[in-house]
Amino acid sequence: MKKLKTKKVTYTNPIFNNMTQEEITDYQEKLLKKQLKYVYRNSEFYRAKFKEIGIHPDEIRTLEDYYKLPVFLNKTIEREIQQQSIDKYDHPFGLHLCTSPDDIAFTGTTSGTSGNPTFTYTFTEEDLNFLNRYIAHMLDYGGINAGERLLFSHALGIYATSSILFGVRSHGVLPIDVDVRAGSQMILKYAQMTKPTAAMMTSSLTEHLIDKAPELIGMNVGDLGLQAIFTVGEIGIGIPEVKKKIEDAYGCRVYDYLGELGFSCDSDEYHGIHCVAPDLSLFPNDLIDPETKKPIEIYNGVIGELIITELNLKALPRIRYSSGDIVQVFTSECPGCGFKGKRIKFIGRSDDMLIIKGANVYPSAIKKVVSNFIPEVSGELRIVLDTPPPRVVPPLQVKIEYGADFDTHKLPELEARIKNELHTQVRVTPNIIWCPTGSLGKALTKTPIFEKNY
């Protein structure tokens, strides 16, 4: 890939580009006060929640006041109030709905792999128009212009990523949407036929197609002519070896993004998702300790569980919503592009956290260490669990694929080096189970990190 000067990321709303962080905070406080009054007036659930804790929205004068409030919502509570709205009002959107169901223009649910699906991503037309500009801003940053085509390969239908399509179209870009359930050959065939300049997919699928393209369509992915790839939903390109592999194979830049909240910059090194939407959400200023649930002060490098509060959405805004995502927040200027706002890197999910000899261990940390040994290993691994997490009786069992060209006689020496790095960096010394390259497989959607034998 030709090396170009890194383009600076800017806020989606240009008014923030000339504001200090203090001025941005003041702006967000005004939006928050307005939004809290709105949800109090219009949502049965939020009104009851404020009364339960004995606080009226008028009493919340600063962001610090707000961060002291208990968590209002999480996936479990969301499922409960969805069922209550079905029973009481014959709609599935939950008692936290702030508009009439008649005003809903789009709903995109979670996949429901860990329970009943939630209708978290439910928007009015006004909401969609507001969100579209964030996706358009990201595409513009990636050099994707009106009149071009974009391969959109996610599990569509009911799933949340479908809302992104509105933003793609609003930018004048035609999405070529291929459900991943159609399989690798069909995805590649559509790419061959339609000649898109960009693609949106998971990093797992992006990697998977590198190996499959020569076999299925007789060409390398680099011959597809993509100029940018946008990945979502996985640690993925936060691992340097994965980022380099994808960019070298496709011959273009790969960007990490988190819906409308932000995206990574055009840098050879990964410096996290740049938070470009202070008028959309308080993200990432509201963190709690994943165990105590107490608020955490924001400073450069802090790690905590992300609490989401949406400041401008009307249908189903999330207010003090415990996301379950563990992130690291950076407040320093981006060393890659010079963006002065906050950035985040994903550490893992709170429900993926393992406790081994009293230490908290995140699977993503194990994966990052193992990926440093590519090409001696393939980068694929599975953490084997014989009992339900989070507590694990040591030693932790980890299956790791050795590299395709690796001399298996050298596995004991490689194993010793990997164990030493895991002990030093992650505070865990696992039992490694070696597997041939390709035996663990790679999913078209999200590649699982656990092998659950319980």
UniProtKB/TrEMBL annotation:
<dbReference type="InterPro" id="IPR042099">
    <property type="entry name" value="ANL_N_sf"/>
</dbReference>
<dbReference type="InterPro" id="IPR045851">
    <property type="entry name" value="AMP-bd_C_sf"/>
</dbReference>
<dbReference type="GO" id="GO:0016874">
    <property type="term" value="F:ligase activity"/>
</dbReference>
<dbReference type="InterPro" id="IPR028154">
    <property type="entry name" value="AMP-dep_Lig_C"/>
</dbReference>
<dbReference type="Pfam" id="PF14535">
    <property type="entry name" value="AMP-binding_C_2"/>
</dbReference>
<protein>
    <submittedName>
        <fullName>Phenylacetate--CoA ligase</fullName>
    </submittedName>
</protein>
<keyword id="KW-0436">Ligase</keyword>
<feature type="domain" description="AMP-dependent ligase C-terminal">
    <location>
        <begin position="358"/>
        <end position="446"/>
    </location>
</feature>
